[in-house]
Every structure is written in structure tokens, then in C-alpha cells.
Amino acid sequence: MKNKTGAAAFLVILAGVFWGSMGIFVRALGKYGFSPVQIVCIRVTLAALLFCAILPAGRSGARPALRDLPLFLGLGLGSILFFTVCYFYSISVMSLSAAAILLYTSPVWIMLMSVAFFREKITAVNLISLALAFGGCALVSGFSGKGLTAAGILAGLGSGIGYGLYSILGTVALRRFSPYAVTAGAFLTAAAGSWVICRPGEMLSKFAAAPSLPQLFGLCVLTAIVTAVIPFLSYTLGLRNLEASRAGILATVEPMTAAVVGILVFSEPVTALSALGIALILSAVVLLNMKKG
After folding, report:
1. Helix (H, G, I), strand (E, B) or coil at 168
2. How far apart are CA 126 and CA 3, in angstroms?
3. Is 267 buried (19+), middle (13-18) or exposed (0-12) by CB count in 10 A?
4. Which tens digits make up the pLDDT trace of 24-52?
5. How far is CA 93 from CA 21, 90, 100, 140, in A?
6. What is the pTM of this model?
7. Least packed by Cβ within 10 Å: which of 84, 85, 97, 291?
8. In contact, 251 and 12? CB cutoff 8 Å
9. 51 vs 72: CA distance, rounded Å
10. Considering its fold, how many domains does the chain have in total?
């Protein structure tokens, strides 16, 4: 059991690292003129197709039926699509740092929902790790209160709740379905919802105007694999043998990775506060994985 828990923690951390590389692909697709919501649509649609392609290889357990539709609607629309739309809206109305900090209230919501639905106990180690992780996220993001609005704050908190909801609903779904079925079902519903809000005619015209369609399509497929297929499958696999609250804290390696990517790829400056934030997040990860010892 101890080995399974360690492997599960590694998978969740791996997911956070891959999510942290998202900025590279978002900026690359943004150069083609795609809006953030259109990038989300491209990402989740191709990921849904890829998940469906690998589903037969990992099929085990029950097959989803019509009665399971509310659960997968919650995973796809209530979590994946909802948190992304809220996050991009909060970015558009206030500073990126404030939006990122509100997004990373997600471990708090996961912990509260885990207590309510799964009767998980809040331990001192979890609380200390949560404080370290959230403090690290705040320092890495570099908090700025510029442009704070009530709508932006609500959207930012909504992104954190939607992000955390995947851990809760994913844990429920894994009691009956394989991780492959869970991720495929979640992304199929998210993809269907994204086409309603992405202005598809405008998005397809941007594909038609691309200088090299094969190059753009390859970038889109790579974006789906690196920022959706690998991390969501890894995270869902990790949830099988890990408490949802612990997984939520471990996933905070994402902003740390994003900061490192910014430094190495985009030559963004490193500050003493961001370095301290990275150290705090790593401390939270180490503490969570040492607690049973």
C-alpha cells in the first residue's frame, strides 16, 4: 500500500509539472490569433479524441450508462470547462497574479469538500502543508491587487472551486470506472460544451488562414497531449490511491513549474520572493510524503 501511495503521489506531481508547461503552448497558439476560449476548445476537443482512441486499451470495470451522465457532465462542464472559463475571465478583468492566487485556493476547497463528502480527517500535517503550498503559490505569482473587482474575485474563486471539483467527482467516478473511462467521458462533455462558446466559425477561419496548416495542426495535437492527455490521465490514476485533499496540495507544483518555465524559456526574471515561493511549495510536497514515516 505504501508503494502504491508513493506512486500515486508521483503521478499527481507529474501532472502538475505538465500543467505547468501550458504557457508555452498557449503563447504559441495565441500567435495564430486564437482567443483563450478557442485554445481551450482546441485542447479539450483533441484530448477527447485521443482519450477515446486509447480507451479500449485501458478498459476495465463498468461501462458508463445513461444514469451516469450527470456525473460526467459535472466532470466535463462543471469542472474542466467551468474552471477554465472562470480563470480566463478573471485574467481578463484583473492582474494575472491575483487570478492565479484565487485559482490556487483549490486545495482549500478540495479539503473542505473531502471532509463533507468523504469524511476525511483534517490533520495538522495537511494544514501545515496547505499553508506552505498556498503561501508558495502567492509568492511565485507575485500578488498584485491591481484591478480587483467583485466579478473578478467571484470568477477567480469559481475557478478554484471548479478546479478542485475534479478531484472530488473524479474520486467518485473511479469507484466504478477505469481512469481511462473517467478522463474520456469528462473530456467528451467538456469538448461538447466548448463548441457552444468558442465562436466556431471564427476559429475555423483562423485555421484556414494559417500559413502552414500541418504545422498548426501538429502544434494543436502536441498541446492536447502535453497539457491535457498526459496530466489529466496521470492525475486521475493518482487519485485511485491518494486522498483528494492530499492530491490537491501536491498539484500546486504547477505554478512552481510555470515559474521555472518562465525563467528558462521566456527569460523572465527570478526574484527572491519567487525563489522562496518555490522552496515553500517543495517543502509542502516533501512534508506530505514524509508524514507516514
Report:
1. helix
2. 20
3. exposed
4. 888 889 899 998 889 999 999 999 999 98
5. 23, 5, 13, 20
6. 0.87
7. 291
8. yes
9. 14
10. 1
Radius of gyration of the chain (CA): 18
Domain extent, residue 138, equals 2-290
The set of cell numbers assigned to 43 is 485542447
Written as nine digits, the cell of 161 is 472551486
Instruction: Report which of 81, 92, 87, 93 is spatially closest to residue 197, judged by C-alpha positions.
Output: 81
Cβ-Cβ contacts under 8 Å for 51 (sequence gap 6 or more) = 180, 183, 184, 187, 188, 229, 233
Residue 284 grid coordinates:
509542502
At 209-265, the pLDDT tens digits run 999 999 999 999 999 999 999 999 999 999 999 999 899 999 988 888 877 887 788
Burial class (CB in 10 A: 0-12, 13-18, 19+), 103: buried
Residues composing the chain: 293
